Amino acid sequence: MMNLPQVNKASHITALLLLILKGFLLPVSSSASSKLIDDLIRDQRNFYSVDRLFRIGVAFGIGATMANSTFDEKVQNYYQDHIRNSGSDAFSKGVRIFGDGKYLVPISFALASISFIQEDSLIGDFGYKIFRSYIAGGLPLLATQRLTGAGRPGEHDHGSKWRPLDDGNGVSSHAFIGAVPFLVAARMNDNSFIKYALYAISLAPAFSRINDNAHYFSQAALGWYIAYESTGAVFDTEKNKSISIVPMIGQNTYGVTFLVPW
Predict the structure, then answer these.
(1) Distance of CA 11 to the CA centre of its chain
(2) Which run of H or E residues covers position 160?
(3) pTM of the predicted model, to two decimals?
(4) Quick one: which H or E segment has residue 69?
């Protein structure tokens, strides 16, 4: 009986993503829909690139070592017994909402729709990149939650250890959802101080899960890391868009020119 709520939660998240995507596509023009679909396909290709999958594999290898040893439980117990206090609880309460999918996902998708009304809108572009990051990492997140099969602190006798398909909390969706907007903002910012400050803030929703004893360290870290790679895949798509292929026709020459701004 303990696993049923998580299955329902995963189903609800998947259904929400599909419904919002359907509603997102209906109002826009065919050219805009084509652009969106093309971007989503490119994002998926970038997410499942060899280099990125290798990095994700390494991250999950480290996470598996933490989860299937005494590391996660020792960290969790030490934090709860010696570090957690009223100040950390107050901070956690303030940042917890950023990882709440029922608020953040619809808001982000609403902002994304602005980009189809006003192409040069910074807010629209911000929302559009968040939207695509959620799509790029959403299904891998749900899959790895079930494949790891780990439970929350205090939920099972086997603690943080992975039990494939046994549960669905091996990767924190809260950490993933909460990190994406801050990671997108960081990648969009050229100011180094602001960029790295936003990277640091992106860890706050993951921290709240550890503080609230809702996830082990490895689970929160993996949720954040999927968000990091998802946003990276989206921005790789944007980089590729900047490469232009221009025909070159001279008096005695024919060919193409690649234009790469830098």
Answers:
(1) 18
(2) none
(3) 0.81
(4) none
